[in-house]
Design a protein that fits this description.
By secondary structure, the protein is α/β, with parallel strands linked by helices. The chain is built from nine helices and eight strands. The mean pLDDT is 96. The chain binds pyridoxine-5'-phosphate. The site of pyridoxine-5'-phosphate has 19 residues, from β8 and α9.
């Protein structure tokens, strides 16, 4: 199973000061050097973290693959067609949300999704649809022309360790099995962390996990000691 690292939170921190640090390009390179098989960024309509210039730089500097998360927005699609990432992942997007809150409602708009992704597919970009672990959504995704789905693991992650965990986990497992039987390839992500990720191995055929928040959060603490002692050394 492969690991895709989401670097959006590096950009969130950078934008808090409006400067250039921490550098998202450097963060992506470190992730790649340490085993990431792809780098994911979500170019949101409000550009709250990753910005256009970031994706234009990443496409030139990445040694692995760029997976661009995007909403069904014509302007963002224009950028995707211009930079041609290895893959895009279509997600729902609401301006008020803190992060992507639910999967894309593909069953409610199969034709609209199919039409939106066609130019991307024609350009040779792999298309993935971020959906909830729901039979109806999986069947709908299989009718759009997308090659991949990314199963939303948020509900499983939130229930991890509670009695609902098994039920949410089985939904993921069943959805992955159904998707594969319909010819779709399956990724997963959202809310996965160092405690709950191990169960993803129980889901047959998962190709890649896209993980951001827990990795960046851990990096703060694994790096904080060194950062403080280095500054102290400079001051002394
Ligand atoms: N996959 C998708 C489609 C997402 O929107 C996100 C969050 O940006 C992730 C994976 C990663 O989620 P997390 O940051 O909780 O690991």
């Amino acid at each position: 199973m492969l690991l895709g690292v989401n670097i959006d939170h590096i950009a969130t921190l950078r934008n808090a000061r409006g400067g250039v640090e921490p550098d998202v390009i450097k963060a992506a390179a470190i992730a790649e050097e340490n085993g990431a098989s792809s780098i994911t960024t979500h170019l949101r309509e409000d550009r709250r973290h990753i910005k256009d210039e970031d994706v234009y730089s990443l496409i030139k500097t990445l040694k692995t693959r760029l997976n661009l998360e995007m909403a069904m927005d014509d302007d963002i699609r224009y950028i995707a067609l211009d930079i041609k990432p290895y893959s895009i992942c279509l997600v729902p997007e609401r301006r008020q949300e803190v992060t992507t809150e639910g999967g894309l409602d593909v069953s409610g708009c199969i034709e609209k999704v199919a039409e939106f992704i066609k130019p991307l597919l024609d350009a040779g970009i792999i298309v993935s649809l971020f959906i909830d672990a729901d039979e109806e959504q999986v069947k709908a995704a299989a009718q759009t022309g997308a090659q991949f789905i990314e199963l939303h693991t948020g509900a499983y992650s939130e229930c991890f360790g509670y009695k609902e965990e098994e039920q949410e986990f089985q939904k993921l497992k069943n959805s992955a099995g159904l998707a594969r039987s319909l010819g779709l390839k399956v990724n997963a992500g959202h809310g996965l962390n160092y405690e709950n990720v191990h169960r993803m191995h129980e889901i047959e055929g998962l190709q890649e996990l896209n993980i951001g928040h827990s990795i960046i959060s851990r990096a703060v603490f694994t790096g904080l000691g060194e950062a403080v002692s280095r500054m102290k050394g400079l001051i002394e």
